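One example copied in:
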Amino acid sequence: MIFIATALVTASVHAQPTPDTKFKPPIERPAYPQGTGPVVLIDEAHFNWHTATGRYLPFADLLRRDGYVVQASKSPFEKDALKHGNILVIANALDERNSTNWFPPYTSAFSDKEIKAVHDWVNEGGSLLLIADHLPWPAAANSWPPHSVSITARVTLWTKRRWPSR
């Protein structure tokens, strides 16, 4: 019985997505000299699935090799924290409840105060890259004002028990 449980746990651990840290695409002409480019803040304060030291390590490394300065953003979004960055990357943020439970209800990963801080920061010249994969992530990021970001949490499910015949 212990062997079966161990095998199941081991199999599920290997099924998790892992970053390819060995992939280093060539950069013939970096955009900026090493460490002198714009500051890219990668959000790690909202139970993010992707972080600069985790699943987005290859992305962070690519940016660094292209001259950008990459920093983890580990605190809630506030004007003072955002002023140090030029680009904010938010990838698959979740509310604390949904970080361990991917079933509805889905609540916003961001407070109203954070949304206002990011909105104001973008209006003052900051750039936002907001990434939301499949549920629950789009629902957790759906609280942005409709005139700034629009995300729909649409999913297509095949409800029949058999595949359609051709």
User: Anything to note?
Assistant: The first helix runs from residue 2 to 14. Residues 5-12, 160-166 have pLDDT under 50 and may be disordered. The two ends are 44 Å apart (CA to CA).
